[in-house]
């Protein structure tokens, strides 16, 4: 498997010929539009098949897997265009096996809203190790606020994905509640009730791990929060369930701000089985046009995390979205909208800042389909903005800023997957996504 960066003048056909692969498979595996349009700077994943099967009339995916001596899941993983569905057509080319040795394993966790479309969910399930429905809430007395997670619980086992339960202080208003978390951390009776409720819910629904996300915890409750995570780990580990805790993206132990101070990397890293670094949302809906996850900022957080937490315990957050800022940007008035990264390559986003992108978003002439790397990182200028329309409502949070999150909810035009996190950890168990 190789990554090819599209250069000026290249076509899908010329790239396929360069690597000696099927132009049809190259296009389908990278979701290239039917016309073959590419954007300069776009990356293409080039699969090098060792064995390909051409579908014959009447064949099924299960039958092909049986005949070829592979699993249906591996066929899904090798053929992204299947979208996690077993429907195949005569004369389709399917990659049965890839060349080369596997270089290692990768644990991938995906967070999904409960309203995610099943079609979208099944597209990503073959590629993740863990699925985490977002989110279970809490009450100050230790009760659980239960989401409608049934459809996600039913889908994950079909693709071998472990289920993790997500526990947070997010409220119906769409904001993380400091008072709610504070009341719980000051009440050991309520904590015991919550831990018992969490354990019972995980056993009943088949959850195999717990992800805790308490944000805007008061600084004076730093040690109490770590002690609560320790109690959760001590209660759940004997049941075979690891506990992971989300950490705000800090670059030093002395970092100030309500989001950061109670997230003590050393204490929480010792208290939990693993940590999840929230390395995203520097660029956010109510802020100026900028990258969601600038590479320099992400690297600084990882560099600090490695001084306080064992490397095998670290999951790194990766945003699966960008933002669409109407231009010109007016501070206090402009609000950006979530967009899926694929739309950048289809020429439909005016100023998109993706994970790893840097620099300032800016307008460009209509139909300027290029992705250029500037001094601070890639810029993605596409066409001039049109008025965006919100299609969903989800939580709003001015993440990674010292101010409190905005009240209420923000428009979201995505299809349900919030973000993912990855780890090279060998301690969390379960299936791994093979590289």
Number of strands: 21
Question: Mean pLDDT across all residues, rounded?
Answer: 80
How many helical elements?
Answer: 12
**Widest sheet: strand order?**
5-6-9-10-11-12-13-20
The amount of beta strand, in percent, is 15-25%
Shape: globular
Low-confidence stretches: 348-419, 423-435
Q: Structural class, from secondary structure content?
A: alpha/beta
Query: Biggest sheet: strands, sense, closure?
Result: 8 strands, mixed, barrel
What's the gyration radius in Å? Answer: 22 Å
Termini separation: 9 Å
Question: Helix amount, in percent?
Answer: 25-40%
Secondary structure: elements and pairs:
Layout: E1 2-5, H1 12-19, H2 23-29, E2 43-46, E3 49-54, H3 61-68, H4 72-78, E4 93-98, E5 105-113, H5 118-124, E6 130-134, E7 137-138, E8 144-145, H6 150-155, E9 162-168, H7 178-185, H8 188-205, E10 209-213, H9 222-236, E11 243-247, H10 265-271, E12 274-277, H11 295-308, E13 314-319, E14 322-324, E15 337-339, H12 342-345, E16 372-374, E17 377-379, E18 392-395, E19 409-412, E20 417-423, E21 433-434
Parallel strand pairs: 5-6, 6-9, 9-10, 10-11, 11-12, 12-13
Antiparallel strand pairs: 1-2, 3-4, 5-20, 5-21, 7-8, 13-20, 14-15, 16-17, 18-19
Helix pairs in contact: 9-10
Describe the protein in words.
This protein has 435 residues and is α/β, with parallel strands linked by helices. Helices cover 25% and strands 22% of the residues. The chain has helices at 12-19, 23-29, 61-68, 72-78, 118-124, 150-155, 178-185, 188-205, 222-236, 265-271, 295-308, 342-345; strands spanning 2-5, 43-46, 49-54, 93-98, 105-113, 130-134, 137-138, 144-145, 162-168, 209-213, 243-247, 274-277, 314-319, 322-324, 337-339, 372-374, 377-379, 392-395, 409-412, 417-423, 433-434. The strands form seven sheets. It has an eight-stranded mixed β-barrel. A hairpin with a 5-residue loop joins strand 7 and strand 8 (144-145). The chain is globular. It starts with a strand and ends with a strand. Residues 348-419 and 423-435 have low confidence and may be disordered.
């Amino acid at each position: 498997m190789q990554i090819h960066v599209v250069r000026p003048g290249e076509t899908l056909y010329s790239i396929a010929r360069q690597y000696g692969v099927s132009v049809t498979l190259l296009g389908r595996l990278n979701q290239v539009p039917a016309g073959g349009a590419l954007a300069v700077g776009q990356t293409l994943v080039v699969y090098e098949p060792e064995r390909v099967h051409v579908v014959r009339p009447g064949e099924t995916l299960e039958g092909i897997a049986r005949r070829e001596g592979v699993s249906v899941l591996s066929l899904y993983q090798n053929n992204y265009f299947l979208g996690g569905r077993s429907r195949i057509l005569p004369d389709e080319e399917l990659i049965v096996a890839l060349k080369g040795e596997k270089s290692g394993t990768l644990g991938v966790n995906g967070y999904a809203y409960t309203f995610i479309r099943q079609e979208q969910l099944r597209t990503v399930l073959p590629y993740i190790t863990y699925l985490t429905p977002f989110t279970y809430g809490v009450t100050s007395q230790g009760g659980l606020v239960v989401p409608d997670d049934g459809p996600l619980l039913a889908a994950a086992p079909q693709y071998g994905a472990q289920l993790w339960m997500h526990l947070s202080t997010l409220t119906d208003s769409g904001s993380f509640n400091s008072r709610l978390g504070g009341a719980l951390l000051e009440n050991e009776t309520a904590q015991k009730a919550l831990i018992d409720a969490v354990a019972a819910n995980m056993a009943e629904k088949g959850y195999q791990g717990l992800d805790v996300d308490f944000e805007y915890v008061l600084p004076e409750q730093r040690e109490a929060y770590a002690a609560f995570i320790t109690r959760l780990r001590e209660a759940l580990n004997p049941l075979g369930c690891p506990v992971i805790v989300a950490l705000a993206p800090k670059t030093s132990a002395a970092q100030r701000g309500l989001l950061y101070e109670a997230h003590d990397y050393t204490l929480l890293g010792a208290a939990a089985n693993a940590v999840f670094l929230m390395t995203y949302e520097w660029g956010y809906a109510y802020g100026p046009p900028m990258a969601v996850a600038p590479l320099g900022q992400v690297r600084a957080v990882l560099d600090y995390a490695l001084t306080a937490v064992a490397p095998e315990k670290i999951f790194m957050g990766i945003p699966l979205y960008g933002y669409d800022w109407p231009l010109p940007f007016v501070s206090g008035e402009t609000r950006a909208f979530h967009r899926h990264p694929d739309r950048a390559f289809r020429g439909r986003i005016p100023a998109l800042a993706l994970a790893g992108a840097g620099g300032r978003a800016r307008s460009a002439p209509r139909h300027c389909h290029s992705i250029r790397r500037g001094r601070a990182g890639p810029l993605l200028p596409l066409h001039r903005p049109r008025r965006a329309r919100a299609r969903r409502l989800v939580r709003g949070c001015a993440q990674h800023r010292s101010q409190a999150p905005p009240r209420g909810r923000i428009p979201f035009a995505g299809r349900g997957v919030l973000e993912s996190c990855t780890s090279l950890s060998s301690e969390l168990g379960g299936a791994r996504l093979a590289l």
